[in-house]
Amino acid sequence: MIKENVRKILNELPEHVELVAAAKEKKPEDILEAIDAGVKIIGENYVGEAKNAYKVVGNKALWHFIGIPHKQKHDFLRKKTLEMFDMVETIDSWEIAESVDQKCREIGKVMPILIEINSGREPQKSGVLPEAAEALIRKISRLQNVKIMGLMTMGPRFGNPEESRPYFRETKKIFEQIKKIDLPDVEMKYLSMGMTNTYHVALSEGANMVRIGTKIFGEKAKC
Ligand SMILES: *Cc1c(COP(=O)(O)O)cnc(C)c1O
Is 125 touching ligand 1 by the criterion CB < 6 Å? Predict the structure, then answer.
């Protein structure tokens, strides 16, 4: 089933769009099956789960961190963790960027990062507010061991995916603005938005990276 799901999704995604398989609470065997069907990037929310999966899957895929870093700082900011991840999609503050930068300097790595935008301006959600994004990006761009490669957003959750459109549109607008000011050491390459229910809308608003979990792995296939 996982294989069919992946093939279906890969068939409908335009060629320039990257698929991130969001694998929270999924078994390493399921992740391997998705990789067999063509998944190249695994998204992980929790460091512990990521490490367990990595033991089995290793470098058969790239690993993106899509969780909340400051909630698991102790585990997230370890050298081993940062060595494992190929990208952190959820950087939303100077503090976390600076900590990642510092650790990455120690391991001689430049970590590709995305800046997470709180496009719904929801107080309980992660992400930098749209109006604060440019200043944060300017500041983080001076760090040597993290490299800004684009933006990520979740957006508020709705039953009707059409309601997500304005939030994706606003994030794309910030993406274009940052691209236009052409900051040194900032590459606006990836725009990560859209999940199972919303990726069609996100694609039509310019996403070139989608994070899909349920539509690949099913509803509740817990370990
Ligand atoms: C779980 C998750 C996804 C995938 O959500 P689905 O609705 O299962 O496709 C995408 N991004 C993040 C950050 C997630 O935590």
Answer: no
